[in-house]
Structure formats: structure tokens, C-alpha cells
Amino acid sequence: MQLVPKTAGRALRCTVGVAAAAALGLATAAPALASPTDPGGPTEHTDMGVTGADAMEHLQQLSDISLAHADDGYRAMDTAGYEAASEYVEGVLEGTGAFDVSRHTFEVADQTFGDVAFSVGEADYDVEPFAYSEAADPALSDAVLALPTDDSYGDGAGGELGCDATDFADVTDTIVLIQRGECAFGEKTANATEAGAAGVVIYNTEDGPINGTLGERMEGSAPTLGLQQADGEALRDALVEASEADPAEEVTADFTLETEFTTVETWNVIAETTAGDDDSVQMIGAHLDGVTEGPGVNDNASGVSGVLAAAEALAAQPTDVDHTVRFGFWGAEEVGLVGSTEYVNSLSSEELDRIQGYLNFDMIGSENYVVGTLDSDGSDVPLPPDVNVPEGSAELEAIFTDFFDEIGQPHVGTEFSGRSDYQAFIDNGVPASGLFSGADAIKTAEEVELFGGTEGVQQDRNYHTIDDTIENVSTESIDIFTPAIAFAAHSVAFELVDEPTEEPTDDPTGEPTDDPTEDPTGEPTDEPTTEPTDDPTDQPTDQPTDDPALMIAPDTVGVSDFVDADKGVDLSVTGLEPGDDVDFTVTPTSGQNTEEAVIEASADEDGVASTKVYGTSPDAADNYIGDYSVEVDGVDAADANAGAEQAAAEASAAADLSGTFSVVADEDAPGGGDDGDEGGNGGDDGDEGDRLPRTGADTLPLFAAGAALLVGGAAVVAATRSRRRS
What we know:
Layout (H helix, E strand, L loop, with lengths): L51 H17 L11 H17 L2 E22 L2 E3 L1 E3 L10 E7 L28 E5 L5 H10 L4 E5 L20 E4 L1 H17 L6 E22 L3 E11 L9 H19 L7 E8 L7 H9 L2 H6 E7 L10 E3 L18 H15 L4 E3 L8 H5 L4 E5 L8 H7 L23 H19 L55 E5 L2 E3 H4 L6 E6 L6 E8 L8 E6 L6 E7 L10 E8 L10 H12 L2 E7 L44 E4 L14
Helix pairs in contact: 1-2, 1-5, 1-11, 2-5, 5-11, 8-11
């Protein structure tokens, strides 16, 4: 396996959203960075500020649901736990207001097991039934235990694997012991059945349970049990030794497998964005069901949690998605990828053609993890000969590999085998990729060098066991995978637009209004007087009566009020000409995790330009605590028609239109968090005054970045680029 070299230095990716509303109090749902030069959408793809902590919140909830239903099969198909988990997922998605959420129901053949046992002589063995196995009816007693035909047992080759009907000779009415490997379990059972075997025992080739499935029910086939590696190899050696000592000596065994097949109705949870191009659908999925053996926190509540975190962030973006994004939370995956297969099979050819790609996330928190991308181009792991790889799959994988390369995160390719819910999509020509942190594969020395962990053991030793709990999930792995899922979601949802330009247009709509006229309106006086007239009626009447002044109210605000969209901090400049444009620049100055925000505002008929600042992420409120500077640009330093003294005064005021405000812990706020501390701040204005009316964007979306600022200003915003469906 080719391994990607480890690179140093992880770049922290974050974005800050800025939005605008009309100065006269008109709240508008607006795109980020809305301004006369705003491109109206994202100019680069981003992980939307999503972190592993966001996924862990959902993972804890799903873990609690599974454990609460431990006596009823945890979160397996047709259990109360699966119903509760579905309701949780639906509630999260519906709560965003950005998705149409529904259930896609289907029927599936279910199977319950009764007594299961296997013994040889006086020794009882720990065995497990294979999914879709037929019953042993009646139970087998004193049946001869046989091996497939092979010249050299134990070499893992030829007849020992049972991958061809000719691998069995004279096994009629016997129980055949077969080694795992090379071909599917169902093929081994079918070949043994064709040769006349009464029962099949398949033993593992690595430590742990085999967790096997025959893939589908084969009525009339030999009942099949799974045996652990050490027991299987010991039995194999005993049979070889007995045959060598006396070919006529027979070893017998007892075999019990009780099972019942039923039909149950279950469902997938489907959520689709209310915005986006209906003819261009991007799908993202993770299976929601688990196994009856354990709570299934890594397999696959982890993948579900990462997808939920990405879906919430996508819903909070300031512009509508360009492509319709459809999320599938699959049921009945653990009984043979049934949910995703039923869903794809339910689509018409026209509906299927609209799906541009599918991204799958099955296990992202393995305790002995690898950072694996589904290797759809075969560059790391050779593609299995029977797997279809639709065109476009390699480009989807590149979303992940490029992301990891950019942040210096090593990664490896994992087999593009169709072992998870992308199988039905690629079988129907839909490009696919995804991420995988490992299951029952053994971790190599090369992988340990890249990712740490333990060499020579499974990548997830808790896979399909009672120990698949939240305590055994790797939070380090969750922290790596979750932003990558979010980045991929953003990448398939949005088309990028060009960066805005601040250059003037080639064809301006008008000439500047302050250019001198060709003919002066009057001749200068011959002898200007040195004293002002008693009645200064000749002075310009449109000059402001006061110098421009910056007002900040309040200058100290509790963090709870700062993240309240109805409160926040009001900024205004008075003493302007109506229609004057100014820029407010708000900059964190004490190390908090925010970026500088700039917004344009225009003065109203009273010569006041105003805006508002507040935090958009109440869940990360503490990140806002600190000091902020406010600078105002755009006020003329002095009027060309003003006298020398007035010009000097205006220049002084314009040069000092700056101030500060502070966001403090609630207990440190004036009035214990009350925002009633009015008063101005900054420059030479010194005015206290009443707090100005708010002209913010109360209905604007909140951004998912952990410490973003939302600035409501005066620029009239552009309409969103993508269509929103009713």
C-alpha cells in the first residue's frame, strides 16, 4: 500500500461572515459580505468552522439513546432505539429550517435466532450464526466433521477456502470446516451445499468474532456458523492429524442453529435542502442503524454525527446552496446494505440521473484509527476486479485528499470495495467517495508511523461488540474527520464566485458631482474684507452644525447581551452630510478568535450613519470576550469651501473617529449584564446621550464559525444567487 508522506504544519481554516441591512431599519436576509462590490457567494471552499466538538455533541446524544435501549437491541433495525435515533436526527435537521425531512419506508427480510451451538466430543465452542443462514432443522447430531480437499492444509490456498464446488469431495451429510478468505461467505456456503454438506462452519483468519453474512437468503442451503481463529485452526489441525493416523477414523460434531425469517417495515431518514438546483443533486450519507451486539457508537453513530454537524453548518451559511444537497441516514445497513439499496432502486431513471455524486461516511472514530479516503482511483489500493468505479469518483476523492494535504494531515487510501452504502450508487453509475477510519483490518507499522496507535491489532477492536461505546471512540480521529466532512459538504453544495473588485467600472454611470464647472458663477471681489460680516447670509447653508462624531453604545457589554441579536453594540457617526458614505472597521484587539469586519453605511437625512455589531454564535459565547477597536473611514478631512479654522476643526475630528468597546463576562458587566450603560466613546465627541435606535439585521442568519461577528449596516444588499423552492 502506498502511503502519503507526513507533512508538517497544520493550517487553521476559518471564516468570518459579514452581512448588511438597510439603514432605515429594513431587515433583509442577506448574503455574507454584502456590499456594492460583494460577489454574492463564497469565493473559496471552507470547513465552515465545524469541529470535532460539534460532532461529539450529537454522538453523545446517540450514545445515550443506544444505551437506553440496550435490552431491546440498542439501535438495530426494528427496535425502539432505531425509532428514537431517527426522531433525534429528524429533530436536528428540522430545527435548522433549511431542509425538507421525510422517511423513505421499505420492507426487509428480518431474522431472529434461537439456540445456536457447536460441539466436538466433549468440547463446546463459541460460535455465531451467519446473517441469512438457514436453520439446521433438525439439529445435526454426531455428524462427520470434514475439510475441503487440499493438498496442504493451513496454507490458505486451494480447496481449503471452498471457493469452488470442486474443492469439496464426498462431503454428503457432513459438517464442513472452511477457512475465511478470497471469496464471499455466501459462495463458500453455496459450494458446500451443492456438494451435499449438511452444515458449514467458517473460521476466522484473525482474532475476534467473524461477524459474517451470506449476503442474501439462499433457501435450502446448508446452515452456517462462524468460529474464531484459534478454535478453527486447532480443529483443522486435529482433523489433519486424525486423517494421517487413520484415514478411516471419523471425528463427529453436534450442530444446532435455530432461526426464523420475518418481514419488517423500516425506513431511511432523508433530508433535502429547500434551496438549490433540482437538476443537480449532491448526496451525502451515513447509516443510522447498528448491530444488536452493542451500542454502535463508532459504527456508525460517529458518521451520522459528523454529517449532522456539517448539515447544521450548511444550513447556517449566509447564501443559499447552488446545488440541492440531499442527506441519507440509512436503515438496515447492518443486514446487507438494504436501506441504501432500496432507496436507489426506488428512484426512476430521471431521478437517478439528477444525482451528481454520493459521499459516504461509515465509522470516523475508530480507537486505533487511520485517516482513510475511499481509493476510487486505485492509486493506493488496487481496485477489486468486480467493482464498478463511475467516472467522477476520483474527483470526489480529491476533495478529501486535497483538503488533508493543505492542512498537513497524512492520509491513506482504503479499499474501494463497495462494502458500505455507496455500493448501490456505484452499481447505478453514480460517482462516489468517502472517508473511513478503519474496522477489522490490522494496523500496519507504516500506518502507526503516520497516525500513531498499535501495530498488529485491528483498527477498531470494538467493532460490532458491546465495547463500541463513546468511551472507546477516538476524539482525535473525530477532530480530524469532522472538518473534512464539512469541507466536502461545502465543496459539493456551492459554486465559487470571483473575488470582488474595488476598481471603478470601465463605463461609469455619471461624472463626479464635485468637479468644477467650466464657467465660474461669479468674479472674486477686488478687495476681500478681513472681518466677517454681521449677518453671514452668504455662508454655505448645507454645512453640518456639528463636527462628525463617533458614538458607541454601550462601550461595555455583557457577553450574553452581545450574542443577543436584539441587543449587541450600536455604532453611529453624527454630523455628516445626508448620503455621505462611511466605513466602520471593527477589529478584535485582545487575541480572541475573530477576524476584522468592515461594513459600509450611509448617512440618513439627519446626517447620521449607523450600524450594529453582535455575536452570532451563542454556543461559543465566551470566544467573544475581549476588547474591540472601531475605526471610521470615509469622512472628508475638511470641506474645500470652509474657512481655515473650520477646516482645521473638521480635520481634527475626522482624524480621530475611533473608539473601543469591550465584551465582558456577564458578572463583570455594568448592572450585572444589563446593557443599559449608555454613553459615547471615542474621539473628541465626549457625548453621553441616549442609546440610538437599532437598525440591525434581526432576521439575518447566524453563522457557524465559532467566533464570527455579524455587522448590520446601511448598504442595500444583493439578492441571494440560488433559487429557493417553496
